[in-house]
Amino acid sequence: MKIVSAYQPYFAPYAGFFEKAIRSHVMVLMDDVQFPRGRSWLTRNRFKNDQGTLWLTIPVWKKGLGLQKVKDVRICREGRWASKHLASLMTAYKNAPFLEDHQSFVNEIFSDRYSFLLDLNLEIIHYVLKQLESQTELVLLSSLKVSSKEPQLSVDICKEMGATRFLAQSSAKKYLDPQRFRQEGIELTFFNPRSPVYPQLWGEFLPNLSILDMIFNCGPKAAAILKRRLSPPTEQAI
Predict the structure, then answer these.
(1) What are the residue ranges of helices labelled H in 26-177?
(2) pLDDT bucket at 143, cuts 50 / 70 / 90
(3) CB-facing half-sphere around the CA of 193: CA atoms within 13 A
(4) Distance CA 150, CA 138 (A)
(5) What is the pLDDT of residues 65-115, one digit of tens each?
(6) What secondary structure letter does DSSP report for 186?
(7) To the nearest whole percent, how much of the chain has pLDDT over 70?
(8) Contact at 8 Å (CB) between 54 and 48?
(9) Between these two residues, 228 and 36, which has the higher pLDDT value?
């Protein structure tokens, strides 16, 4: 069996992103689709400080560029946002037990090393998968010979990757056509990720923060916390 899933390459994704990755042999990252005009998890995510939710947003160039694909979006390096984000994160997690273990990586995130949003997000995703001891293969949609749109796109991704099962979140049911998968002999399976509960700083637990919150607070135990959610499975085949 070969399980394939797909997701947009979010910025510092939440735990559900990585639960889906760990359940898959291959995750295809949707870099060759249109970049949203409005707010998007591609550029921002939630952390936690003494005031509650801490939003961090990566500014990107959009004005006058028309419709862009995710892979083409460039980071805006104007202003002091990077140093401010780094300072906010360091203040929020200064008491986190494992922040120091990841300090050099955090510094790199907010350096000027990355020109494209995709490169920054991929670096974070690869880093987190390594911390979670995951062997999931990541493949960029732009590297595949696929040009269709949903409801055919996910089917074509599966065919290109030789998948026998496609894993999707329950919220994607309205975009996918089970009959198309059956015609190709591919099992379509849905699951509903739920936020794992783990020790956090700053009072009441907040679910679905960036997974970096879990890594800073739990360190090596983050992998076990997330993988405990894989058994018993919460998947539903159609």
Answers:
(1) 81-92, 103-109, 117-131, 153-161
(2) very high
(3) 21
(4) 20
(5) 899 999 999 999 999 999 999 999 999 999 999 999 999 999 999 999 999
(6) -
(7) 96
(8) yes
(9) 36
The Cβ-side half-sphere exposure at 133, using a 13 Å CA radius, reads 9
CA 9 – CA 35 distance, rounded (Å):
11
> pLDDT tens across 3-18, in order?
999 999 999 999 999 9
b/e string for 176-192 if b means 16 or more Cβ within 10 A?
A: beeebbeeeebbbbbbe
pLDDT of res. 231: 52
Q: How many CA atoms lie within 13 A of 183 on its CB side?
A: 7
d(C-alpha 238, C-alpha 145), whole Å: 27
Residue 23 backbone dihedrals phi, psi, to 5 degrees: -75, -10
Domain regions of the chain by residue span: 3-237
Q: Which of 32, 27, 31 is nearest to 4 (CA)?
A: 27
Cβ-in-10-Å burial (0-12, 13-18, 19+) of 62 comes to middle
- Please calculate the CA angle 125-198-211 and round it to the nearest 5 degrees: 15
Q: Output the CA torsion 8→169→131→102 (10° steps).
A: 60
pTM, two decimal places: 0.94
Give backbone dihedrals phi and psi of 109, rounded to 5 degrees, phi first: -55, -40
Residues in the chain: 238
- Confidence (pLDDT) at 227: 85
> Is the CB of residue 60 less than 8 Å from the CB of residue 26?
no
